[in-house]
Amino acid sequence: MTTEIKKQGLLIAKALETGLRVRLRVGGRSMTPSILSRSWVIVRPRDENEIPPLGTVVMLQTTNSPRYIVHRVISSNGEQITTQGDSNLAPDEPVHYSRIVGIVASRELFGRRLAMRPNAWSRWILRHPTAAHKLNHLIANVLHCVAGLALRRREEETAA
């Protein structure tokens, strides 16, 4: 991991600690189709005693690493939560609640801001992780194709 990425993660965490909302671009396909790679998300600070309910998408620092990830809460006990990317087959290592730096409040998809709340989709993902993994990959491939076509059309229009 480069020093620049570490610095960005620390800056984001500090901004959230001071109570600011942060708009950031996420990478990777672990949350598709809920959050596409290179999409913008709005992360709000987590209240000190807030325990995010199952299905909530959170930003947290991973164990033994300065890396920050955005994944969905799939289980919790009084002390720790377990998260998992919607497209991942295996859950992440359980972490203490103190590792959560923020809650993903919304995401931007094709220019529209959409709220990120636990809903029927997130409940289905929690109940059927293997089927969700396969369906997510299919949807992600379709969305990436549509986004690529839209980008190509925009480039052709600007070139003309």
Q: Which short descriptors sum up this protein?
A:
160 residues, alpha+beta, Umud Fragment, subunit A, eight-stranded antiparallel beta sheet, 3 helices, 8 strands, 28% strand, globular
Question: Would you kindly provide a brief summary of this structure?
Answer:
It contains 3 helices and 8 strands. The chain has helices at 3-17, 120-127, 129-159, and strands at residues 22-25, 40-45, 57-61, 68-76, 80-84, 95-96, 100-109, 112-115.
Describe the structure.
Strand 4 (68-76) and strand 5 (80-84) form a beta hairpin. By secondary structure, the protein is of the alpha+beta class. The protein is globular. It has helices spanning 3-17, 120-127, 129-159, and strands at residues 22-25, 40-45, 57-61, 68-76, 80-84, 95-96, 100-109, 112-115. Strands 1, 2, 3, 4, 5, 6, 7 and 8 form an eight-stranded antiparallel sheet that branches. The protein has three helices and eight strands. It has a single domain (3-159), classed as Umud Fragment, subunit A (Ribbon), CATH 2.10.109.10.
Could you give the topology of this structure?
Elements: H1 3-17, E1 22-25, E2 40-45, E3 57-61, E4 68-76, E5 80-84, E6 95-96, E7 100-109, E8 112-115, H2 120-127, H3 129-159
Antiparallel strand pairs: 1-2, 2-7, 3-4, 3-7, 4-5, 5-6, 7-8
Helix pairs in contact: 2-3
How many helices? The count is 3
SS-derived structural category: alpha+beta
Number of domains: 1
- What fold name goes in the CATH topology slot? Umud Fragment, subunit A
Shape: globular
